Amino acid sequence: MMNRFRLLARRALPLLSAGVLLQAGSCAIDTQSIAQGVATSVLNSLISSLVFGAFGLAA
Question: What is the C-alpha separation between 15 and 42, in angstroms, rounded?
Answer without folding.
Answer: 42
